[in-house]
Amino acid sequence: MKLEIRNLSVEIGELTLLKDINLTVSEGEVVGVVGPNGAGKSTLLKAIMGLINVSSGEIMYNDKKINGLPTYERVELGLALVPEGRHIFPNLTVRENLLLGAYVIRKDKKKVEERIEFVLDLFPWMRERLNQLGGNLSGGQQQMLAIARALMSNPKLLLLDEPSAGLAPIIVSDVYKVISTLKNEVGISMLLVDQNVKKTLEVSDRAYVLERGRLVLEGRPEELYKEDIVRAYMGVKV
Amino acid sequence: MMTDILNVRGITKRFGGLVALNKVTMDVHEGEILGLMGPNGSGKTTLVNVISGIYKADSGQVIYMGRDVTNLPPHKRVELGIARTFQTPRPFNSLTVLENVMMPILHFGHEPDVRGTAYKLLEFVGLEKYAESPIGKLNLAMRKKLDLARALGTKPKILMIDEIAAGLSEGEVNDMANLLMSIRDSGVTLLVIEHVIFFLRKLCDRVVVLDEGVKIAEGDVEEVIRMQEVISAYIGEVIE
Amino acid sequence: MVDVNLAQAIVNGLMLGGIYMALAVGLNVIFGVVKIVNFAQGEFLMLSMYSVYWLYALIYLDPILSIVLNIPISIFVGWVTFKYLVKDVVEKGDYVHIALTLGVSFMFIGLAQIFWKPIYRGIPTEYATWAISLGGVNIGVTQLLILLYGLFSAIILSIFFRWTDTGRAMRAVSQDVMASMLMGVNITKMYTLAWIIGILVTSLAGNFLATFYYIHPNVGQDIFLYAWFVVVFGGLGSHIGAVIGSIILGIVQSVATMYISADLSLVIVFLVFILLLLFRPEGLLGREVRK
Amino acid sequence: MRRSLQIVLAAIALSIVLPLFMSLYMLRLLILTYMFVILAISWNVIGGYAKYLSLGQTVFLGITAYTSTMLFVYLGITPWLGMFVGILMSVAIAAVIGFLTFKLRDAFFALTSIAIIQVFRLLALYFKSYTGGARGIILQPRNDPINFMFLDILPYYYISLGFLVFSILLAYFLDKGKLGYYLKAIGDDELACEAIGINTLKYKIYAFMLSALIAAPVGTLYAQYIMYVTPDGVFSFPHSIKVAVMAIIGGSGTLLGPIIGASILIPLEQILTVYFSGVYGLNLVIYGVLLILVMRVIPGGIIEPLENFVKGMIKNMDAGVRETSGESLKEEKEVGG
Hints:
Order of helices and strands of chain A: EEEHEEHEHHHEHEHEEH
Distance between the termini of chain D: 9 Å
Low-confidence stretches of chain D: 325-337
Number of domains of chain D: 1
Largest sheet of chain A: 6 strands, mixed
CATH architecture of chain D: Orthogonal Bundle
Helix content of chain A: 25-40%
Shape of chain D: globular
Largest interface: C-D, 45 and 43 residues
Strand order of the largest sheet of chain D: 1-2
Oligomer: heterotetramer
Number of strands of chain A: 10
Number of domains of chain A: 1
Number of helices of chain A: 8
CATH architecture of chain A: 3-Layer(aba) Sandwich
């Protein structure tokens, strides 16, 4: 697995959302992107999934240009996104949500069952709630379900958009425990976008700081100075 | 002694199981620019929707100039002087720029020269050159200014401005801040929702910070943005 | 003791409800998934009844047996209309949907009038007059068949939506298009499929209806208005709602016909419909549609 | 501006003088066209500006037709007076219907509007002893101007012309006036309207009342001209749809759109019936295909390309004039804008 983004720009009308982004994710790597609201983090992930049109630049996945592909083909290739705001299907049961996550491998029933067992091992509480409607879960549970659902297709690269948004601190820790497990025990490559800088940096191998649509800093977490990040967010030195 | 133009008393608003606002209480002083800040999903826009009457609060009161307006429909509140703009501008696309601004002036009928008054408002926000243009000719910053001009057409006493800096370039943000200050100088109290912080620092006398529907801080801008709770609300947790 | 007349009226209402049900189910699939209000749905029924008629008139094929041929014909008609007429406007607003599908409806009615003339036709089947008598209450066999077809299609579709990957994907699309895309669902394919299913279910109702009902270029308009009320009444997008709605409206109409007047029965149906809409705009079992 | 006034005056003069030399057929065609133009204008108020798709617009025509005719037949009240009673009834009923149904949107509103016209049609069928049921009420032709009855067709023509001018004037003042702005704004974004203090329900009801006011007089004219009133004739769902379609094809939400739409489609329909009299249904196909085309290609209606074409023509003409007489640029701007 290798994702390489070259000189990516996204413009909508007169609005520039992303400008000349260069970014890579290698096999087994967890890459974090942090930055304040409106910096373009979600746009970046949407562009990778084909939910938004790219104005210029290239998105290379395993050395193949995927810019023009429809979203469902990108999912078939092994990309999966846990979208911001979770977007679970509220009127489908937990099990049905998971089955939809396995939509691209639906022909292989055995594989689907294997994946269900895999995510249920990851989220044991889900076992008892398989027949509940997704909309009746709590916010934290919905977030876990969204992650579990994305894992169902056995993706090679998992994109996570604001997995901690709107969750209580204790739940945020749970979410990040899952992300660590995915990193350390499953070894899945991830591109993680979050407002929670500390958590993001803790789990990332490398990180980028995005500000107003441009990548302003890049490096290993320990190389990124706290001051720079706080300044990017709050505009003040603390 | 400052008088309050608006008091929000213990507002709670739930959507299904989600508590969007949890017993929020705050006061807006007459003539100030109050910043309302907080990360995404903290309930800022919900609060504006409750104050403007688009949402009905589950509990709590909205007191405007000493009067309980909690149960008034949105258009009645506008009549009393509570106006707002939207996060994404919502112009009337089948009307020209000038006609957009004429709408509220026509409606309230407190000006004999509707066109002239509308034109003056366009001049005030710097869009007079586009008076006869269709909306399609305006870029984002201009559409936001048009929203402002239209809201000013209702002769508000308090104007709530929802994320006007989002999506604008740095130059445009400065320009917008100056415009808002001149609106305040004309005697309108402003409640400014924003998460672009340098915009708030430039503009606000005071800020209120919401996080997950709860008010976590209130006070002077420079003090508030250095508070640990606020920083951690914004960037998750404090980095050691 | 239940009055025999009342029992007969209720049974008639059930049968009438069966007709509405068969059509409402098809409408619902399209509205539920594609989110298009198809004002031309009745014309697909009309076209189907004509194809049943001509299969009977030309090769003497029984209206029920011709289902076998009507299935591929309806699928083809559905596919062509979606691809060449509807597909490009799916993303547009309701106003465009209504106007466009009204246009399709006019076009089909006009074409039917040109080709087949506005005359009332019928298929004289042997079994059209067969009836089952239960304690003085008569049940027409053909009407019973369409009621069964209505129930059958509602059940089959519920099973399809509940237990198959494609059906589940369609439900997902109706709830959250973006998330469905992220699951790897091809949205256009789902829209096409839902449209075809909606047209197919409605068209096959034509096979049953043609056994006892008149065939005429306007037949779709006449029936479909009521089917639409049923769907809105029961809650747009809800299959159970459509089943319950069609039975309620059918019985209201039939009982009112017996005890008040045939003309006023429709007025009463309308008034019930309007009252419900005013107090529960989302319909009996519908979820609130946010705009 | 001066040029368009000239055009309007010329058009009025022509429509007053020309009929004196026209065949009976042409006059009938014009009267029919005028009636549909009025109805399309009436539909446009609510369907075009406020974007509430009413599919039962002729309900107001029916109410007035029955009111004035019944007052005349049973009480001997002249239809001239009965017409005003009918208009009042229509406007009042519009207010009630509007209050009940404007909370609904889109398909719900469209369907309810169909339901309402059907209810009126069925009521007219049911109360046979007053309305004559399906056969309706038939008037005996005679020359009786005081009671709105003429043996000659020209009076009907001039009356319909009068009504047409009246409705175009109303439409003009609506388009340029306060209510027109409100309705366009409501059609664009109801929430934004509430946010600047506009009680949208109130203005939608006003608009529906105005729309009833425009359509209503046609009811009495129609009844007195055709000399009979039937439920299917006046509470007509097909006609209601036609009215909406004409306005949409012409260009909904514009002053001229409905006028253009009805002026093209009614004569077209009539010509087709003459040349293809055997081909029943052709007009429906034309309506259908046009509607599909407009929705897919020019959602704004025929008026969009037409306007551009006319503007281009005027520009060219003026350019030619300027070359010879050296007129200033300022004039061109005035004409073009």
